[in-house]
């Protein structure tokens, strides 16, 4: 599969926490943890599991910076 998003971060799933409808999937990207919120159905469809390799794909139109 090819995808247009250029920010593809390969890592290993370290935690999956399912809620009522949404799951939080944590991926270790070389020591940094990226967390994604996806549906429970997506977790099941992709057969995601702790220890499995996956990509965090970031597609954003804006990155904002803020300070106090």
From TrEMBL:
Keywords of the record: Molybdenum
Mop domain segment(s): 2-67
SUPFAM superfamilies, per the entry: MOP-like
PROSITE patterns: MOP
A biological process from GO: molybdate ion transport
Alphabetized InterPro entries for the sequence: Mo/tungstate-bd_C_term_dom, Mop_domain, Transp-assoc_OB_typ1
Keyword Transport: no
Keyword DNA-binding applies: no
Name of the protein in question: Molybdenum-pterin binding domain-containing protein
